[in-house]
Amino acid sequence: KMFTYLELSDRQDYNPHTFTYAFKDYDGQPTNVSIQQDAQEFLTRIFAKLEQGLEKTEYKYLPQSIFGGKVSNQIVCQGGCESIKENLEEYYNVSCEVQNSKSLDESLTKFVNGESISDYYCDKCDKKVEIIKRVCIKELPNVMMIHLKRIDFNLETLLRHKINSRLEFPDELNMEPYTVEGLKWREEKQKKEKKMAKEGNKESKEASNDMTGENSFPEQLNEEEMVDIEDFGPYKEHSQDYYEYKLIGVVNHRGTADSGHYYSYINVNRDMSEENDRWLEFNDSTVQPFSISDMEKECFGSKNNDTSDDLFGPVLPTATRESNQSGYVLVYERKTKKPIIKVASRETVMNEETGKEEEKEHLEEIDYYKMEKMIPERYAQTVSADNDKFGFDLQIFQKEFFQFFTNLVVTVNNKGTEDVGHSIAAKEAILSIGLKFLLDVFPRAHRNMVETHLKVYATELENLIITDDETCYAIFKDLVDNYKPQLTEILLSCHETKIRIPIASLLSKCLVKAVQIEDSWLLEYDEKVQDPKCEEKDRGQKSYSIELINHLLGLIPEECPKNWLRFEQFFTIIRDFTSASAASILVMQRRQMIVQLIEMYLGKGAEMGNKVNPPKFGPLLQAISFLIRNCNLDPRTNQYTMNQFFYGAEPHTPTESETNYLLRSEFYE
Q: For the packed helices 544-553 and 568-578, what is the interaxial angle rounded to 10 degrees?
């Protein structure tokens, strides 16, 4: 579904929330989007799931045909026989060291150089010898992903840290030096040169004293040696195009080992000529042009010598600290593609050796560029319907539409209803439409529209609503009856703070006004709501403020911890309700909200915040403060007092569980 949207949708972005729910972790749980995941680990897991899903289809070998290659795990004897033991292994990405490497070439060279190991028993030599254990490329993929190992585990601190050092990578890459055949001819050439140099040195000692040092090799080589030297060189097994790649994408990471943000730079034109390159930045819902000339600044990493982060975030050097953003996964595409392998048919055959039936596959090769796109019809129809809706929305989200509604609210607010309908009904109708526009349209509008119109629109609409108690209460009832799902989404899920702030302000002021209007029946209604035996029809006059606050308080245990980056405005509303009146603070005390809010602050059962972005607990702590100051227990002295708080509310005697929390030093620390 996600890839169908990416392929066919007219929208510039796709929200992958359904994908993250379907993409389960190792424990079978949906992906926790509040915790930073590793991009390379994600690649490994998604390819495994693709292989599993395509196993019984004709596209079984599709992922491997595009992204898959093979590495050769080699053990090279250094004891005399020079034998090579080889074990082939499929791969979807190559991991390269960043530590102590200045360039991708240097890192790939370390990748294939391997390590020396002593006391290894060689069957051919029949003794313990020194060996070279290394990994080199046996088969190259059409699209190669190179993972830069910037996240490392420190064995001294037993913590992960990010390596921010500079690592340069080219726009065009030749992989021949890092392949099995590339290493083989170079090693053979090196051996031959050493042999010739040794023979040359021997002859030079026997030569006359007037021979210059220019003749370090024999003057005469036999025919066999001449043929061997001519055979040395690249591109004997494959043509040069087989090894040549062009950079088409970079997955960038900004932040530390424990928290940060992934985004991508992609060359959306697959033409191999530089003239037609078109790079874009894909950063959440933002898609904008990117200049390849900025690749060094954005993706190579820091130039500082101080290249790591510590327990408390990035280390600040004495010089100016450069950005901790850098390339994490590089995507290269081969200039000349090998064909796609497809299962043409399957048949059941008898294995003569085992006497058992086996499935035999008949494979066919398809030109890489002629592979047909296969999109499930049900998803294609879903995207088509969404495109129709999006086309309609485009007309709504035009700047003229926003300007019309802004002018309408400003006009009504400045001139009153006499000039626009001569009735309160007209005003309420305009406000109802204006409220729907604020809650349904602005959260989905482009950032430019939000920045241009929202502040003026929201301010004028708020002033228009709260100036009249009757109108304000009517609008508040409309909010509670019809907009609770939208309010929840805006307060906790909307990424734009500029949208959350004015909507939370409007809702909070309407809520406080409703508490004051409902003062005579609010507590009685609340008692009946708390009584499980009391049916809805027997509760009497409805308190809309209780209905809303019950809805919001119900979101605290589960939804607030998951949305800790955005819950500041949510708790602003909780705080304002708590301090609205003696009745509202009693409502909070009845529910023992001291315990729930302190547990939320202490992060019981959920991890919130990181080194870069701590949760904004200000309004939450203010709500706790209002509740504590209305208790007749002084946590500093553990003495009961009779100090009244405000609004004539009776001091609250804490329950045992509340007392336990109030006396915990953990909270005050």
A: 140
Question: Does residue 470 come out as left (phi exceeding 0), alpha (psi in the -120 to 50 range) or beta?
Answer: alpha
Task: Give CA–CA dist 431/378, Å, rounded.
Answer: 40
| pLDDT recorded at residue 236 | 85
pLDDT less than 50: residues of the chain:
208-227, 229, 305-321, 417, 420-422, 640-647
What are the Cα distances from residue 389, in Å, to 9, 437, 441? 11, 17, 14
- Classify strands 143-149 and 93-97 as parallel, antiparallel or unpaired: parallel
The SS3 of residue 308 is: strand
Write out pLDDT tens, residues 182-228.
Answer: 998 888 888 888 878 777 666 655 554 443 434 333 344 444 444 45
User: What is the chain's Cα-based Rg?
Assistant: 35
CB-CB contact of 664 with 602 (8 Å)? no
What residues contact 242, with CB distance under 8 A and at least 6 apart?
140, 235, 334, 336
pLDDT of residue 626: 86
Q: By the 8 A CB rule, do 75 and 85 touch?
A: yes
Residue 435, Ramachandran bin (φ over 0: left; ψ between -120 and 50: alpha; else beta): alpha
Residue 515: per-residue pLDDT: 95
Strand partners, 330: 146, 250
pTM above 0.90, yes or no: no
Q: How far is Cα 155 from Cα 562, in angstroms, rounded to an integer? A: 31
